[in-house]
Amino acid sequence: MADKALFEFLTRIGDTTLVLGHRVSEWCGHAPALEEDIALANTALDLIGHTRMWLSRAGEVEGKGRTEDDLAFLREAHEFRNYLLVERPNEDFAVTITRQFLFDAWHRLMLISLQESSDQRVSEIAEKASKEVAYHVERSTDLVVRLGDGTEESHRRMQHAVDILWPYTGELFTDDETDRELSDRGIIPLPSSLEGEWKTHVDGVLSAATLVRPEREYAHKGGKAGVHTEHLGFLLAEMQVTHRAHPGATW
């Protein structure tokens, strides 16, 4: 029998890395420096690699014969469970790096906790993904500090990025019925339990970057329940078009 709660969690984390991986990949050939172009492309590949593991496992848990490709390319926007933060448009390099940093700081903590999961496959996937995410955190942290405490223009853009993205971070730490059930079973940590350590790390980095964290605590929510911004529909149209136009095609 399908484990609905576990399937829900696996699609949440798998959809999140999938959507962010696609967003980051949009910089390929467009980054402000060759080094960043390569680094962003590698980050996107890492995230897509994580997606394959999470969504493959989700398909197994669901028990309906759907593969990672089916889940990635043949679902509509309302069926996706990614956090709203990762579907935000790139806008500019400052927004991209700030979004990455805010996500990376959460991603690292989540994966560390998931390594202790009572579900062996979840634990194994988290352990494998953690090695790459440790680098993601180091890189995005360094860039936030360098750009925040850089020129007047880079500081202005980074502060703007923090201001517009902060309201989308609260959803990362919002508990719901699925979270509570899986936490009781020892499979995942309660998202809210990660918030204190995340804020400590983020506040330290923002301080070093001479950036100010917004005081408001309002949080945009809905992604975990399939309620998304208009941006996801456009992203999926681009991401899914080839697969849908040529069903069953192979290399």
UniProtKB/TrEMBL annotation:
One Pfam family recorded for the sequence: PaaA_PaaC
Q: A GO CC term?
A: cytosol
Checking InterPro entries in the record gives: Aromatic_CoA_ox/epox, Ferritin-like, Ferritin-like_SF, PaaA_PaaC, PaaC
* Biological processes annotated in GO: phenylacetate catabolic process
Stored PANTHER family? 1,2-PHENYLACETYL-COA EPOXIDASE, SUBUNIT C (PTHR30458:SF0), PHENYLACETIC ACID DEGRADATION PROTEIN PAA (PTHR30458)
> What name does UniProt use for this protein?
Phenylacetate-CoA oxygenase subunit PaaI
Q: What is the lineage of its organism?
A: Bacteria, Pseudomonadati, Pseudomonadota, Alphaproteobacteria, Hyphomicrobiales
